[in-house]
Structure formats: structure tokens, C-alpha cells
Amino acid sequence: MASYYNSEDLKKFGAIGDFGAKNLAQDFFKYYGDVFAEGALTSREKSLIALAVAHVLKCPYCIDAYTTDTLEKGCSEDEMMEAVHVSAVMAAGITLVHSTQMINKAKEVTM
Amino acid sequence: MNPVKSLKAQKHELGNTQYQLDVLNDSGKLGHHFPLFQEKLAPIGLFPLKPTQIDIFQINVGKMCNQVCKHCHVDAGPDRKEIMTQDTMQLCLDALKKHPFKIVDLTGGAPEMNPHFRWFVEQIREISQEIKIIVRCNLTIILANPKYHDLPDFFKQHQVEVVSSLPFYTANRTDSQRGNGVFEDSIKALQLLNAVGYGQEGSGLTLNLVYNPAGAFLPSGQAGLEREFKRALKTKFGIDFNSLFCITNIPISRFLDYLLVSGNYGSYMEKLVNAFNPVAASNVMCRNTLSIGWDGYLFDCDFNQMLDLKVTGSVKHLKDFDFQQLTERDIVINQHCYACTAGAGSSCGGEVA
Prior knowledge:
B: TIM Barrel
């Protein structure tokens, strides 16, 4: 295997059920479709959330897919970048809020 | 940076319509193989593609334009001199008198730059008060020269529906497609149209906007985009309009050039082919439209016109206009037609499915 990530593989995503566990794949893609349909949130808002999640979970396939999807849904550059900042600041905050554990432990064991 | 000259003036190979068709049909060496469009139509009973009811008489009054947009399928610009003469306009009027089309759709270029434009609109309105006259106004023409400043009043006087391109509600994305400063001038022009009543509730003056993607991606969700456009334009600029039409960029002329130069041609065509929608195919605009070229030749749509794909049959020019024969013709299709059948479909009036 020359590399672990290949953009061409994104096109194969819908066919993962052909390898095995077809029913589970079908259930997943049905769920996927339902989640991204217009609902209490618009599909546009959901696409921006997906773009943010794609970054924080560092999925190149999803970044590719949801950059295109947000553009197609008419999101501006500022909206897209602000969504990524939300994921970035959440990741930073999640790291920093754990420092309370460190502080608690440090206080517990120090004079 | 937008091109200063049209492909034709640059003597670019894509200024040759046969070269464009060769690219689309992979007669060259690009190595892309896509199924023929007719192979998609045949299994759903749409080949040969036939007209349904021809209601729209779309007239391209010339290729001259004050803008040189990167995606323009007409390859329009200030250097294009192909302009419809008054004699050819008279042939259009004769055809309109013979057959009661519901809509006359005036396009270009910038149609207002044709010196006989106002006369033509007046003559069409004289034929019928009921007929809907649409002008595809690029907005900036209203500000381009003092002689065009009263266009909003002229449109109002003759009850003309205005359809205008605005690729996005931000300057950077609009200007990247249509040229520097186009967004700012477009906003001013929209405000002038609003000031005479266009887009205002109860005025009866319709102002529709056209969104087309500023890049190698498809439009998605016309209703959602319309909401965003209305919110953004009202909040930032106090602008009102009626409807937003989403139009997919057709892979011909300057947009084809962009796709090839940017390396997006293969993936864009693949996207169009994979998004083929049979419902959109049955509602394509060429089934209810007749497209007239600046020189009076007849086409199935403005895109076929720009590829010089004339209608089939013996009636090919307005001087031989025979409505019955035109209703029975086979519509000319080619690989670019995938753009009108992708996803929710695309037409001069937006989504079709």
C-alpha cells in the first residue's frame, strides 16, 4: 500500500457494504441521509457542523466532501472558516479544561 | 483577474465550437470517458428528445457586453460585434405575431447594448399586453454609461421582468467570477431597481436573481440559497427581490476553459454525470423553448446556440419560421446537456425537479 489516504477512495465509501455487513452499511447510510435532511436545523447548518467535525477529527475525506458541500449550499468563506474556528477552540478548550484535573491533583499532593 | 478579451478575440482554440465539442466528446487526448448523454435518455423514453409545448421565445440580441465574466457561455465582451439588426428583430416580431408565445426572454451579451433594444421592447409590448417580457440584465450596464441610467424606468414603463445574475452576496466571490467592482455596481443597480418598485411587494414588478456557482461545484438547494440571499442582501444593503434561480454552469466556452486550466474538468463532468436526474431530464427547458441567435438562426437553447448546434429539420432560420414543424423536431443533444439534468436540474428559470 503506497499511502493510507487516497482521494479516489472517497468514491468507494457508499460501497463498503459490498465487502461485508451489508445490512449495517444500509442502516448507516439511511441514518446518514436522514440526519442531513432539512429538519429543525437546515441542511446548510448541518453541513457547516459537519465541516467543523471533519476538521477536529482530522478526516481528509470529510474535509474534501464538506468543503464542496458547504460551497454548494452557498456558505461564505467567513462562515466556513468560523466553523473551523469553533472546532479549533472547542478542541483547545477541551484540552485546557482538563487542566483542572491537573490542578486538583497537584494541590492534593503538594504542600 | 478576469480576462480582458473574449476567447474569440484571443484566437483561443476554445473560441472554435468544433474544438469544444471535440473536448466534450473526448475526441482529443484528455483521456476522459463519460457515457453519451443519449444513453441516459434512451432507457427513460426520452430519446429522441422532443418539445412539449413551446411557450418561450428566447432571443439573443447580441454578444456585446460591458463585462467579461470568467464563466460566460456566450464568450461575450466589449470586443464582440455580433449584434442583432433591426431587420432580424422584425423577423422575430413577425414570428411573435404568428404564434402567441407566452414569454419573450431577451438575453445577450448585455441586451441593452443593442442600439435597437428599446425599440424592440416597445414593439413586443405593442403586440401584446399579456406577453411576459424578460430581460436578462447584468445590472452593471445600468451604471456603465449615463444613457443607461434610466433603464429601471424604461423596464417599469413596459412591464419588463428583470432577471439578473448575482453569483453571491459577497464581493469577493462575485468579483472573482464577474470582474473587479462588479459586486459594488450590482448592489447600486439593485437599489435603483428597488427604488422604482422592482422586487417590492404589490408593485407587480418582478426582479429575480440568478445564482451560479463561482467554481467547479454544483448549486444545491435553491430554496435554502434564496433564504440566505434574501437575508444577507436585506440586512447589509436593504435590497429586496422576488426569487432566486440556481443555474448550473455549463461546461462550454469560458467555463470549459476554466475547468481545463484549473484541472477540474474530469471531476466536474463526473459529478454532472453521476447526478443525472431523470425527472430533471423530462423537464429540461429546451422542450418548451425556442432560442433565436443574433443572426436569426434557430436553436434549441442558448447553450446549443453558442456551440452552433442549429435545430434539426429544414426550418433553420426565422425567415422560414414554421411553428408546427419546429414542434415536431428532434432536439439536438450533446455532452454539455448533463449540466441541465444534474441534481435538481437547471434552466434559465432555475431548478426544474
